[in-house]
């Protein structure tokens, strides 16, 4: 009697065929971060995870209640790929502070991450080059590279991407697009000053290369100053897709963001979005629209920023004395991240196991580089824990750094 194939114990387990572009990616880099953040014995600075105690839970609850009571049937129905008009109007109103924007120029997304995927799907051909800051946001690199793009990192300094290096990279690599995070960048926390934004715009205006400007953090300012997007500089709005997100300002679990663009590409973006997910959750869109119309997001963001600022101060104070000589650390004026380069002889990836053992996690910086990584770097998010917890944990990280010195 022959053994039925399904019952044959010598048969290897079925291996599901997956696309080459995802083969070998068993877990997303962000999933690992969330796993670390969830461990109770570890103080994690690894994720960009807002402090949930700062969420405006009551306002959000009121807005959901209102939407279900007054717009319930519509909220639970399919909607349009472009996004619900109330939300697009609110997005346009906020953007118009810096850049005149009409609701028809907004495309709603399920967070900026989906926005980046939509952009990649709409714009990229396999083999295209995307120029990115070195270092840049790793999940953007992933969204672009699964579409077959080749990422090339452009030199940065404390003011962001270096315009001459950008011009040279455009000449050499003929990119399909440039991707930048000009305000409180992930992972470095750096912000491009106005003059640098102008210089970058001048470089781009001499070419046909579009800009993908990712701005999820710009409003989280610790000084009260915010920067108008590069998209608002003369000539730039028609060649920029600007992405915003409610994740860091309101709550990431809501998964609502939007893109602003002009002209025909708006249609392509809507068709792409429809192919991916039809539309973002209507009930969530209407809730956010209601929140933006009735609650004071700016006041909420100011409160959150004041707390984050104290935490930035605590981390900056604690880390300065434990860094080795010659190390470089950023001092962000907003956002969520501080970036440290320990320098020659250190490998932040090698150090991580010891650090987790000591009860502290950070994100090794190498993964944020499209090419030529500086392995001595680490990203530390200062937003999730209280100043006392931060100071204690950075002290323990300091002991790990000292043990690894000169290896
Ligand atoms: C630069 C940048 N872009 C986009 C995102 C995606 O955020 P979300 O999809 O929650 O809007 C993040 C999240 O950390 C980010 O840091």
Polypeptide structure, described:
The protein has 407 residues and is of the alpha/beta class. The chain has twelve helices and 15 strands. It has helices at residues 29-38, 57-75, 85-95, 111-123, 138-145, 163-173, 194-205, 265-277, 282-294, 297-319, 348-357, 387-404; strands at 43-44, 106-109, 129-133, 150-154, 156-157, 160-161, 177-180, 211-214, 240-245, 257-260, 328-329, 337-341, 360-361, 363-364, 377-381. Helix 6 (163-173) packs parallel to helix 7 (194-205) and helix 10 runs parallel beside helix 12 (387-404). The longest helix is centred in the last third of the chain and has 23 residues, at 297-319. The N and C termini lie far apart (63 Å). The mean pLDDT is 94. The site of pyridoxal-5'-phosphate has 13 residues, from helix 4. Residues 48, 111-113, 137, 181, 186, 214, 216, 245, 247, 252, 257 line the site of pyridoxal-5'-phosphate (PLP).
Give me some keywords for this one.
407 residues, alpha/beta, seven-stranded mixed β-sheet, four-stranded antiparallel β-sheet, binds pyridoxal-5'-phosphate
Q: Total number of helical segments?
A: 12
Count of beta strands: 15
Q: Whole-Å distance between the termini?
A: 63 Å
Biggest sheet: strand arrangement: 2-10-9-8-7-3-4
Overall helicity: 25-40%
The average pLDDT score comes to 94
Which class do the helix and strand fractions yield? alpha/beta
Beta-strand proportion:
5-15%
Describe the main β-sheet briefly.
7 strands, mixed
Which term fits the overall shape? globular
Rg, rounded, reads 22 Å
Q: Provide the low-confidence segments as ranges.
A: none
* String of helices and strands: HEHHEHEHEEEHEHEEEHHHEEHEEEH
Bound chemical compounds: pyridoxal-5'-phosphate
């Amino acid at each position: 009697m022959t053994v039925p194939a399904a019952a044959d114990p010598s048969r290897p387990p079925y291996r599901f065929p997956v696309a080459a572009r995802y083969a070998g990616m068993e877990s997303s880099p962000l999933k690992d971060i969330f796993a670390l953040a969830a461990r109770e014995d570890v103080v994690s600075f690894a994720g960009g995870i807002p402090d949930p105690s700062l969420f405006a839970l009551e306002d959000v609850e009121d807005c959901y209640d209102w939407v279900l009571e007054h717009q319930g049937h519509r909220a639970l129905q399919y909607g349009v790929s472009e996004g619900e008009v109330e939300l697009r109007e609110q997005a346009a109103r906020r953007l118009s502070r810096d850049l005149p924007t009409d609701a028809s120029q907004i495309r709603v997304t399920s967070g900026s991450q989906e926005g980046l995927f939509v952009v990649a799907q709409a714009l990229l051909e396999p083999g295209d080059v995307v120029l990115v800051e070195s270092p840049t946001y790793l999940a953007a690199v992933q969204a672009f590279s699964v579409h077959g793009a080749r990422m090339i990192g452009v030199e940065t300094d404390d003011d962001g991407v270096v315009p001459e290096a950008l011009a040279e990279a455009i000449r050499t690599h003929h990119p399909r697009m440039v991707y930048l995070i000009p305000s409180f960048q992930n992972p470095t926390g750096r912000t491009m000053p106005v003059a640098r934004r102008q210089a970058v715009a001048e470089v781009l205006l001499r070419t046909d290369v579009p800009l993908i400007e990712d701005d999820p953090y710009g409003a989280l300012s610790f000084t009260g100053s915010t920067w108008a997007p590069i998209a608002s500089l003369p000539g730039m709005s028609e060649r920029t897709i600007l992405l915003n997100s409610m994740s860091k300002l309101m709550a990431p679990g809501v998964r609502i963001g939007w893109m602003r663009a002009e002209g025909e590409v708006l249609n392509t973006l809507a068709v792409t979005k429809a192919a991916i997910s039809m539309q973002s959750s209507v009930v969530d869109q209407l809730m956010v629209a209601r929140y933006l119309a009735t609650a004071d997001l700016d006041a909420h963001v100011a409160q959150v920023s004041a707390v984050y600022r104290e935490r930035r101060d605590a981390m900056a104070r604690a880390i300065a004395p434990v860094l080795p000589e010659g190390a470089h650390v950023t001092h962000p004026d907003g956002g969520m991240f501080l970036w440290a380069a320990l320098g020659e002889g250190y490998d932040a990836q090698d150090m991580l196991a010891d650090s987790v053992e000591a009860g502290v996690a950070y994100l090794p910086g190498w993964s944020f580089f499209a090419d030529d990584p500086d392995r001595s770097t680490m990203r530390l998010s200062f937003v999730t824990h209280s100043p006392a917890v931060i100071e204690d944990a950075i002290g323990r990280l300091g002991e790990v750094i000292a043990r690894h010195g000169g290896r």
